[in-house]
Design a protein that fits this description.
- The complex is a heterotetramer, with 2 copies of chain A (343 residues) and 2 copies of chain C (359 residues).
- With 343 residues, chain A is α/β, with parallel strands linked by helices.
- Chain A contains 11 helices and 15 strands.
- In chain A, the strands form 3 sheets. A 7-stranded mixed β-sheet of chain A has the order 4-3-5-6-8-7-13, with helices on both faces. A 6-stranded mixed β-sheet of chain A has the order 1-10-12-11-14-15, with helices on both faces.
- In chain C, strand 3, helix 6 and strand 4 form a beta-alpha-beta unit.
- The termini of chain C are far apart.
- Chain C has 2 domains: 324 residues, Rossmann fold (3-Layer(aba) Sandwich); 33 residues, no CATH class.
- Chain C is of the alpha/beta class.
- Helices cover 45% and strands 9% of the residues of chain C.
- A 6-stranded parallel β-sheet of chain C has the order 1-7-8-4-3-2, with helices on both faces. Chain C has a two-stranded antiparallel ribbon with strand order 5-6.
- In chain C, helix 1 runs antiparallel to helix 10 and helix 2 runs parallel beside helix 8.
- Chain C is built from 13 helices and 8 strands.
- The chains are: A alpha/beta (343), C alpha/beta (359).
- Chains in contact: A-B, A-C, A-D, B-C, B-D, C-D.
- At the A-B interface, helix 4, helix 6 and helix 10 of A face helix 4, helix 6 and helix 10 of B.
- The structure holds thiamine diphosphate (2 copies) and magnesium ion (2 copies).
- One thiamine diphosphate sits at the interface of chains C and A.
Amino acid sequence: MNSSVSETVDQSIPQEVTEKLSMVEAVNLALDHAMADDQDVVLLGEDIGVNGGVFRATQGLRDKYGLKRVMDTPLAETLITGISIGMAAQGLKPVAEIQFMGFIFPALEQLICHAARMRNRTRGRLSCPMVLRAPFGGGIHAPEHHSESTETLLAHIPGLRVVIPSSPIRAYGLLRAAINDPDPVIFLEPKRIYRAVKQAVSYGTAILPLDKCFTLKQGSDVTLISWGASIKETMEAANTLQEYGASVEVIDVATIKPLDMETILTSVRKTGRCVIIHEACKSFGVGAEISAALAEEALADLKAPVERVTGYDITMPYYRMEDHFLPKPEDIIKAALKTLSFH
Amino acid sequence: MNSSVSETVDQSIPQEVTEKLSMVEAVNLALDHAMADDQDVVLLGEDIGVNGGVFRATQGLRDKYGLKRVMDTPLAETLITGISIGMAAQGLKPVAEIQFMGFIFPALEQLICHAARMRNRTRGRLSCPMVLRAPFGGGIHAPEHHSESTETLLAHIPGLRVVIPSSPIRAYGLLRAAINDPDPVIFLEPKRIYRAVKQAVSYGTAILPLDKCFTLKQGSDVTLISWGASIKETMEAANTLQEYGASVEVIDVATIKPLDMETILTSVRKTGRCVIIHEACKSFGVGAEISAALAEEALADLKAPVERVTGYDITMPYYRMEDHFLPKPEDIIKAALKTLSFH
Amino acid sequence: MKAKEYCHIPYIRYLDDEGEALQQLPAWTENHETLIDYYRAMVIARAGDAKAVALQRTGQMGTYPSSLGQEAISTVCCSLLEKDDVLIPYYRDLPGLMKRGIPLSDVLLYWGGDERGSAGKAWGKDFPNCVPIATQAGHAAGVATAFKIRNQHHVALVSMGDGATSKGDFTEALNLAGTWQLPIVFIINNNQWAISVPRKIQSGAPTLAQKGVSAGLPSIQVDGNDVIALHEAVSSAINQARSGKGATVIEAITYRLGDHTTADDASRYRESEELQEAWGREPIKRLRNFLYHRGLWDEEKEQQLKREATELIDSEVKRYLNTPLPEVSDLFDYHYAQMPAQLEKQKRQALAKANGRAH
Amino acid sequence: MKAKEYCHIPYIRYLDDEGEALQQLPAWTENHETLIDYYRAMVIARAGDAKAVALQRTGQMGTYPSSLGQEAISTVCCSLLEKDDVLIPYYRDLPGLMKRGIPLSDVLLYWGGDERGSAGKAWGKDFPNCVPIATQAGHAAGVATAFKIRNQHHVALVSMGDGATSKGDFTEALNLAGTWQLPIVFIINNNQWAISVPRKIQSGAPTLAQKGVSAGLPSIQVDGNDVIALHEAVSSAINQARSGKGATVIEAITYRLGDHTTADDASRYRESEELQEAWGREPIKRLRNFLYHRGLWDEEKEQQLKREATELIDSEVKRYLNTPLPEVSDLFDYHYAQMPAQLEKQKRQALAKANGRAH
Ligand SMILES: Cc1ncc(C[n+]2csc(CCOP(=O)(O)OP(=O)(O)O)c2C)c(N)n1
Ligand SMILES: Cc1ncc(C[n+]2csc(CCOP(=O)(O)OP(=O)(O)O)c2C)c(N)n1
Ligand SMILES: [Mg+2]
Ligand SMILES: [Mg+2]
C-alpha cells in the first residue's frame, strides 16, 4: 500500500491485442469480461439493453448475456439503486448505470442510507458489492443537467468508494477492480474524453488498485493534481510548462475516495508546489480536501500556497457559455507559474 | 460586508422581554413572528400541525394560523421540497420541516436541480424564497439515521444558502433572516442544544445577516472555528485554554454557505493558529474548505498547520458508541495545544 | 384476483384514424373556429419543430426533442388554459408553449444553450422546461397548493411522458393532489417510448391512467391524436379543478414519430413497421381530413397557412441566430438576489479572464 | 367520473371483533395447531414488546416503536415464510422477527444502540431493520429480482406502514414488481397513524391497497387483527409469488394501540375514544375468545404460556443487558472489506483516544 502506482499505459499492453479502444469501448470491454468471468455480474439501468446505453457503454451485452443479466429498468433512479442493493445483498454483483450524473440525486438516499452502510450495519453479515456507473462532466454542449461534476457529494459519504478513470486502460483496469470489489463503488466516467484517445486494451490489461493515484508524469518543480477529463488540459499545461523549463509532476487522483494522500504528499513534499484542477465548483469541492490535507500535513514543505483551478461556485452554465466555466490549460499554466514565482 | 459581526447575545436583548427561551422555543417564536408579519409565510412538513413537530418547533402555530398556513403533509420528502418550490415560484414563502436531517436525501434532487437554480434558470423571472429546516447532529442517543451531520453536501451546491444557529438569539435572528431572504436557505438546527441554554428573545431581537460569522470570543493566540452544537465543546475548550494562559478567539461560522472567509482570515492572520471543529466526517467536510482557504490565502501568516477536530470517516455509530465519534473538549484542547507548541 | 378486474379506465375517442366521426360530436365542435384554430396551431408547431431539428442537424443548435406526431396534446391543453393558470411543461411541449404565446425563438434559445430562453416576459408565471424527469409534478402540486391557500380559482396543468409515470415524484404528487383536492390536471403524453424503453416494459399496468387510481383520482385514457377527444377530456378536467373538485389524470395515447432527441437513433431499437403504422394515426392528417370533408378547409387555406408558418418561423429563427452571447457576468448575477462576497470575487476573476481572452 | 367507480378492492374478514366466525372458515383452521401457534406467538411478542417499552422507560434502552395491537400481521406473515424466503422488515416488526427465530435480545440490542443487534446468524439473509421510510421496498424488489435471475422459487416479503405508501420508493417498487412479475408480497401495516398524521390525511384514496392497482397488481384489504383472514391473504399471495405469478399488495387494517414510539405522546393528537374503541378490535383478545369458545384454550394454558413468555423474555433481557460495549475498532472494521489506509490511521487515533480515556 506504500508505493505509488505509476501510469500503466506503457506497462500493461497485453500480448493478445488486436485493436485500440476508446475509453467508452474500454468500459464496454471491462463489463463484457467481468460478465464472462462471473455469472453474478448483472447490468441494469435505463436504455442499456437493445439501445446499448445512450453512450453505447453496454452495446452488444444484452445479445451476448441475455435479458436476465442486462436489464432495462423503468425510469426511476431511486429504484435502480434500491434494487441493486437488494440484489447485492443476495450475492449478485449489480453494475447499474445512471444515464447522466445529473440524474444521480434520487439515488442518494439509497446510496447514503443503505449501500454505504449495509456491511457496517450488519457487522459484515450482509454487504453491498455493487457498482454505480455514471457519465459526468461538461464540454460536450449537452443540455441542462447533463454536464455537472458533483463527485464531492459522494466522496464525503463513509462506506463508498469513488473512482474516476481518465484513459481507456485505466477505465478498463479500474472498472474491473470496481466490479470485483466487495463494497459499493461509484464509477464516474468523464464523457468528454469517452472517445478522445484510443489505447490497446484486452483481457490481459491490468486490473488496478482502487486506492492509488497514478503519477502520469514525474517532475520536481511543481505538482499538478487532477482527475477525469481535466487530465487532458492538465497534461497540455504540463507540456507547455515543460517547454518553459519547469519540471512538472502530474498526478491523476483517479480514486477520489478513499483518497491516496500518501502519493500526493510524497509528490508535493518533493516539489513544494501544487496546483489542483477540477471541473466541479470550487467551494467544498474535492480540491478543498486535498489542499487542506497538504497544508495540514506538509506545511513546512510548501514553497507556495496551493492553487486551485476549478469551476466557479455557480450552476454549470448552459452550453453557449460552458467554456467560461471549465478550467483551461492557460488557467492551469497561470496558476502553476504563480506558485513557481512565489517567494 | 467588510466588518465581522460580533456576538449579538449581549447587544440585542430587546426591551419587551418577558421570558427566556431555549433554542427550539426561539425557532418557534421566529416562525410565529414571521407568519404574523407576512401572510405569504406558510409552514409544511410531517407532524408539524396538531403535534407541533416532533421537537415542538411549530407548536401552537396551527391553532394560531390555521390549516392553510400550517400544513401536515403526507410522508414524502421529495414532495415536501417539490411543492415548496412550486409555492415559492408563486410568491409564497414556504418554510418546510424535514423531520430529521437523516431524511433529507430524497429532497436533494429538488434542492439541487430546482430550488438552487430557479432564479438562474429563468434569469430572475421566477425565484425560490423557501426555507428548509431540519434538526441535525448527534449526542441525544437517538436511533439510526437521526444523528448525522451532512451539511457539506448542501454547502457544495451553488444557489443555496446553508445556515446553522448555535444559540436561541442566533436561531431567532438567523431564521427570521432566512425567511425574509428571497433565495432558498437550508436552516439546520443542532438538536443536541435545542434546550441547552435559555436566552431572552423577543420581537425586537435583531435579524442577523446570512453571510457573516460570529466572533464569540476574542483572543490573539489561536482561533477555534466551529458551528452548531460543537460550539458548546469549543467554548468549554476555549475556557480551559484560557485558564492555561492562552488567548483564544472563537468563531461561530453560522453561515456555512456562503462562507464568510473574510472574518475567518482576519482572525487567523492575527492568531496564526487555527483549530476547526465539526461533528461531520472529516474528509471532504466543511472544515476542509476552511482549512484549504486559510492555507491558500494566509500561508505566510500560519504559525502552525491548521488542525481539524472532527468525526471520523465512518458512519455515525449507533448511540452506545456515539461518544467515540463526537469531538470532545479535550480533543479540541489537545489540538489547540499542538498548534500552540508548533515551531 | 386479476388486477384488471378491479379497475376500469374509460377511453375517449371521437374521430377515427381518417378523421371520420365515430360518434355524435360534442356541441362545441359546431363552432368551427376552435377546430380550425387547433389545426393552424398544430401545423405551425410542426413546422417550428422541423426547423428546430434542422437547426440541430446543421450545427446551429444543441440536442432537441421533437414533438412530431404529438402536437395535439400540448396544443389542446394550452389552448384551454387561461392566462392566470400555470403551465408546468416538460421538454416535449413546443406546441403548447407556442400556444401560450411564448416565442419560438425563446424555445430555440433554450435548446441553443442559453438560459435567456426561459426568461422572457411571455412566460408569465409558467414554469421553464424541466429536464429531471417527473420532478415537475411536485412543482405543479405546489403551484396548486398556492392557488388553494390564496383562494384563487386557477389551475396548474402539468405534462410528462409515459416514462415519467415510473418515477416516485409523480405518484407522490398524485397522492397529494388526491389528499388535498388540488386544482391540477396531470396530462401524460404516452408516446409509447421512453427513449428506447417501450411502454410495456415501463409498467405492467394495463393503462398508465390507473396510476391516478392509486390516489383516488378520476383517471381516463384519451386518444391523444384526436383533438376533439382531448378537448373533451381536458376541458372537463380543467373545469373540475377550477371549481374546487380536485385533480384528474389524463393519459393521452399517441406516438413519438421522431427519434427521442436529435442525439438518438430510434432505428436501433424499434421496428419501422410500427413507425409506419403510427403515421397512419397522426393528429394533423386526421384533423385536416375532418376539416376538408366538412368543407372547412381547402388547399388555398393550406398554402396560406404554410406561408404564414414559414414567415413566422423564419423571423423567429433569425431572432434566435442573431441573439448575441450573454454577458459573462450573467453567469454570476442570477444565483442570489444579494450576491455573496466570495461570488463577487469569482465574478471579477471570470470577467478578467474573459477580457484577457478577448484581447 | 368518480374514482371509486373505477376500482373495487376486496376486503377479507373471517372473525368478528369478539372472535366469532362471520362465514365458513377455511379448511386449514381445522388443524388447531396453526391457530394456537399464532396465539402463542402473539402473546409472547406482546410481552416482549411491553418489556422493550419498560426498558426504555427505565433508561435501559433507547427510543422504541411498540407493535402493540398489530401483532397479528407480522406474526402471520413470518409464520408463512419459508427459511429461504427473505424478509425485508420495517421497524415495527418485533413479532415477525421473533417468529423468524431472531432472538429478542438482538432486537433489544438494536434499539439499545448497538449494531450487533442486526449481525447475528439467526438473521440469515433477512434484511436488518429499515428506518428511512419505504426505502426497503426497493430492496425487496432487488431481492426478488435476484430470485428470478437465479431461478429460485423464493419469495421476498416486505412490510411497511400506511405512511410509507406516500413515498415514491414504494410506488416505484410496485411498478417494477408488476413489470417484471416479481415474487414479492407487499404488506401494509395500516395502523391508521403515521406518527400524528391520520390515515385520511395521508392519502385521499379510499384504500391503500389500490396503490397496487397503479402497477396492475392484485390488491386486497384484509382485517389485520384477524389471523384467519391474514393467513388466507398472505398464504395465497406467497403461493402466487412462489409459482411465478408475481406480486400482491395486501393492506392489513389494524390500529396502533401505543404511541408512535416511546419518544411520542399520542394523547397530543388523538382522541382517547378512538383508542378505546380500537382496543375492542385487537387481535389477541379476538383469537383468545375464538380458541376459548372452541375449547382449544383455557386458563391453565394461558398461565403456562405467560410463565414461558416471562422466562424467555427475562433470559433475553439479561443477555441484552449483559452485552458488553463493542470494541472501538468495530466502528471502523466493517466499512470496507479492505480497510483504506486513511481509515486505518483514524482507527489508530480512536483507539489511542479510547485508551487514553480508559486510564
Ligand atoms: C431523472 C432523470 N433520469 C433520466 C433522464 C434521461 N432521460 C431523458 S428523457 C428520458 C426518457 C423519458 O421518457 P418519457 O417520460 O416517456 O418522455 P418522452 O421523452 O417519451 O416524451 C430519459 C430517461 C432524465 N432526464 N431525468
Ligand atoms: C424518509 C423518512 N422520513 C421521515 C421519517 C420519520 N418517521 C419515522 S416513522 C414515521 C411515520 C411512519 O408512519 P407509518 O408508515 O404509518 O408507519 P408506523 O410507524 O405507523 O408503523 C416518520 C415520519 C423516516 N423515518 N424516514
Ligand atoms: Mg415517452
Ligand atoms: Mg402507520
